[in-house]
Amino acid sequence: MNERDHLCALSLDRLLLSSMSADEERQAGEHLEACEACRTALEELRADQQRFAARVFARTLPPLEARACRRGRLELLAARLGNPRLLVPVGLAVALLLVVARPAPEPDLRIKGGPTLKVFARRQGAVFQVRPDTRLAAGDRIRFVIEPERPGYLLVASVDGAGTVSVYFPPEGGQSAPVGAGRSELPGSIELDDAPGPERLFAYFSEQPLPAAEVARALAAAPGAVVSGVKPLELSFAKEQP
Amino acid sequence: MDQQRLAALYRRYGPAAYARCRKLLRDEALAEDAVQEVFVRVLRHLDKAPDDEAALGWIYRISTNYCLNLLRDRAAQAEPVDELPEGTTGDLEAVLSDRDACLRVLARMPDKLRAPAVLHYLDGLEQGRVAEVLGVSRRTVINRLAAFADRARKLLEPSGGLE
Fold first, then answer.
1. Other CB atoms closer than 10 Å to residue B153's CB: what's the count?
2. What digits encode the pLDDT tens for the residues A172-231?
3. What does the alpha-carbon distance between residue A199 and residue A162 come to, in Å, rounded to a whole number?
4. Residue ranges of the domains in chain A?
5. Of A184, A229, B43, B157, which sits with the fewest C-beta atoms within 10 Å of its C-beta?
6. What ipTM goes with this model?
7. Would you call A223 helix, strand, or coil by DSSP?
8. Number of inter-chain CB pairs under 8 A, A vs B
């Protein structure tokens, strides 16, 4: 389809959004009267958009709003922490938002005979390993250290208390990233926020890359889900509100 | 504030983004996941979100890149090479206006050539519009479309270079 002969996809969207000028809309209307292909394309587009409005929007908006709310709180917190006069009261408030690691069978997560995952936290310059009795707070940054016995692929994701799934590694999403054998620290770190409810981390080691969207969909349906035969390592955090 | 802005953008442009994802992915469940991923990316760059009409082009760009990356990743796992149309290089635009043919060719292209090609050949946008949506110069779009066409013709030749 070419814009010279037909209405382009962007024009059809603009038409449905009523964002065309009066002149553009008149021209589009005239073209639609004479062009069956464009009328069909417009009807297909309208049907998809109606499907979104009827079946997708209301269900998917709350997780997105929850993310936006968390981002807003973190930005506010960061802004306040940047102000020394507020550092002490905010620090106290943060301390009340304790994130307590649930008792885990062992601090080094391992599927018997398989890879290991260790979690380290950084707070005010101090780095320590997260163990079952470690108390974490909002603003702490966590990093992951892995030790697979052989090369493979890794994807790390979390499910928060609102059921929102986030892919932490690889940071760009897409699919599992290749990792080599032996100990290595994953690039980047995750800042813990004050989102309520438990948060669960899942690390999928696999021989073939797993699509992030497929993992996210499986985790949203059932945290800890086996994806393409791969059972994840899990680390859960209980978050206590003051 | 972020919450309200994101909700407003999702309400206004979510339907267009979803329809775009469904058009490219051809799967309702994938499109539903994709539109949420698109707006997670919108949220990450909310401070750069343009107003009104430019927002549609911006969300078009994010949606297109997300879906093409997803298709590339899936194609890397399993893509039959014998399904490309053959011997039809005489009218490249006609061949690439077919969604399936276009996406199969796109799967074999470098990342930077994909978005301009899908916007031009599949969505019918003129080069100037493609440049606006992608935030690059028209010259860049012309060069990338020329490179895409050159590679596509070679792929679509009967020998195909796909063996």
1. 15
2. 778 898 888 888 888 777 777 666 656 778 889 888 889 988 898 888 888 888 888 888
3. 9
4. 9-56, 61-93, 97-239
5. A229
6. 0.82
7. coil
8. 129
Would the CB atoms of A3 and B125 count as touching at under 8 Å?
A: yes
B41 to chain A: nearest residue by CA?
A172
What structural domains and CATH numbers belong to chain B? Answer: 1-78 (1.10.1740), 83-163 (1.10.10.10)
Mean pLDDT of B12-40: 92
Q: Rounded distance, CA A51 to CA A54, Å?
A: 5
> By C-alpha distance, which of A233, A98, A81 is closest to A152?
A233
- Contact of A25 with chain B, judged by CB distance below 8 Å, is answered with no
Whether A34 and A6 have beta carbons less than 8 Å apart is answered as: no
On the question of pLDDT at B128 being above 60, the answer is yes
The residue with greater pLDDT, B82 or B62, is B62
| CA A152 – CA A106 distance, rounded (Å) | 23
